[in-house]
Amino acid sequence: MSGPDIEPLRAALLGWYDRAKRPLPWRERADDAYAVWVSEVMLQQTRVDTVLPYYDRFLQRFPSLGALAAATEDEVLAAWSGLGYYRRARMLHQGVREVVARYGGAVPRDPEQRLSLPGVGRYTAGALGSVCFGLEEPIVDGNVARILTRLFGVTTPLPERVTQARLWELAQRLVVGERPGDFNQSMMELGALVCTVKNPRCDECPARGVCVAREQGIVHELPLIPRKAPPRQATLVAVVATRGAEVAVLRGDQALFGGLFGLPMAPLDQDDLGADPGEDLEAKLAAARTALATAGVAARLEPEPVGEIQHVLSHRRLRVVAFTATHARIIGEPVASSTRLLALGPDQELGGGSVGVAKLTKKILALTHGPLPAQGDLFRKRR
Q1: What global pTM score does this model have?
Q2: Residue 295 and residue 285: Cα distance in Å, rounded?
Q3: What is the pLDDT of residues 23-33, one digit of tens each?
């Protein structure tokens, strides 16, 4: 293996970790595989400072693996609301239920059994194995991949199979030795605090003397990541249909935010929008009527939109035109799996916080009911 010698590198990283590690709550519960599992799932594609309040609230609501397994999906998604990437919560829920059903409520020590759990891939399995059971199991996430490509001068594109195979091989060889859990965490911590995507602090790095990328002056070029396509543009029409203090919402597994409750929505084809304001409004009204009909909701639709918002997802940039309607009632057999009238509370809480609600839904409700506009969100109200 080209690059730095393993043992001195391990010793340097473990020593740095002992001095520099942050006092994170899941590190204090390394003997609790459930608590570590929750943290690893929450931290996927999400910053630590964002996760911290959700982690504490989630474990207060579901203090044990058994408590989470016994919860309904609505309860789980309600506790996850606002954290995003909701499939993570659903797969975690399925995974702990399988642990209860197949392994008596104890996260299995055997790596193959862990890998067989819903939502548990090689990274999560390795994190649980090394941190909770002291096993020499590797991990490769974004932070670790960045460190390994720089340390060993890996210049092939990151998504390629040959690159991934090499990174996992390097991680496997590096984790062998004392304190495998702490070593894996040292790699993640180094990527978060020192070997960052932008402005890496190479002079503070415990591996600065053996880093191939630093020696060759290519730190900022690695890892090699092909440019992503920009998010696709899409326009939707949403309807906030109310009956008194209640709002019509629906949940459908095939909806934009599967498993969460959201407002009736329908796509608006840009080809339907013309230069004539009257035609433009009629196209939006038609989409609003379609949204209500698909959700199985009858209501008195207001003749003009109340405003619109912009909402950016990882793969889509949404423009959402919002209408309001009154006298809402559920009719017939809606296409969606469920449609309900739920009370709207503070901070756009639906049903007393008993169901999961996407951030997009909260933003639309803020537009019509106020206040809650997050910094950077674009709200345009009718004047």
Answers
A1: 0.85
A2: 15
A3: 999 999 999 99
